[in-house]
Design goal:
single chain; 253 residues; alpha/beta; 6-stranded parallel β-sheet; 33% helix; globular
């Protein structure tokens, strides 16, 4: 059966390194025999803000979950969202390319999650986490930061980049997906000059050249860890004997 890889690019400049990296992922996936789908969010003019104006018959007062569920049940999703849902459902792998801006992915990508991960189709009250509707799909984050690597670790003044990715990773985990450990390239910005610029360009060239191997080995790449449903009690609190993988879900005291 043909495998499908979806490339989600969240950068306003297709000629950026993020754009080139996304192109490298697409080329690598195609070379491996994949069907390749694209969601170039800025390029396609994706509207990231959810709201009643997106729906023909929104509930009043507006409730995003109810609006999505009702539109999905009626087969009346906004056309742009219906297209994204189809791509997500079709994809076996989703490779996200984006920069970190103000200690988070761009708002465009958050808005894509808000709108495209449709309640009633890609998750619902009873089917989430271990029983999520996107089980069997694997995601990879390919991320750039402007900070130096030394600034972006656990003791760095910019904060640990891997922790900044947790909300997006947990969103996908909520829907049932597996999330591979991210690829993070630091120090990517337009203010390098002279030798520093040449060194950056050489480093980024190596990253692009390695992307084929990264995607070829994606099935074996370690996963970001998350607690299983059984790790929580009936109130949704972490059991005393369960492991804590992240500071966001931990034992109190």
């Amino acid at each position: 059966m043909e495998r499908t890889t979806l490339i989600v690019l969240a950068h306003p400049e297709r000629r950026s390194f993020c754009g080139a990296w996304a192109e490298a992922s697409a080329a690598a996936a195609a070379a491996q025999g994949d069907r390749v789908l694209w969601s170039d969010l800025y390029g396609m003019g994706f509207h990231p803000a959810e709201g009643p104006g997106r729906y023909a018959a929104p509930p009043a007062p507006f409730d995003a979950l109810k609006a999505q569920e009702q539109a999905a049940a009626a087969g009346d999703l906004p056309p742009d969202i219906a297209a994204e849902v189809d791509k997500i459902r079709t994809a076996d792998r989703i490779v996200f390319h984006f920069p970190i801006w103000w200690f988070a992915p761009p708002a465009m990508l958050k808005g894509w999650c808000d709108r495209a991960l449709v309640h009633g189709l890609l998750h619902d009250v009873d089917r989430r986490f271990d029983t999520g509707l996107l089980r069997g799909k694997r995601a990879l984050f390919c991320v750039t930061t402007g900070a130096r690597e030394t600034e972006a670790g656990p003791d760095g003044k910019e904060g640990e980049t891997r922790l900044l990715l947790w909300p997006l990773a947990h969103t996908l985990r909520y829907c049932g997906m597996e999330v591979a450990e991210p690829l993070i390239v630091h120090g990517v910005h337009g203010y390098h000059e002279g030798a520093r610029k040449r060194a950056l360009e050489a480093r980024l060239t190596q990253v692009l050249a390695a992307q084929g191997r990264i995607l070829a080995d994606l099935a074996q790449r370690p996963l970001m860890p998350f607690n299983a449903d059984a790790d929580f009690d009936a109130d949704g609190r972490l059991r005393p004997d369960a492991p804590s993988h992240w500071p966001f879900i931990r034992h109190d005291g």
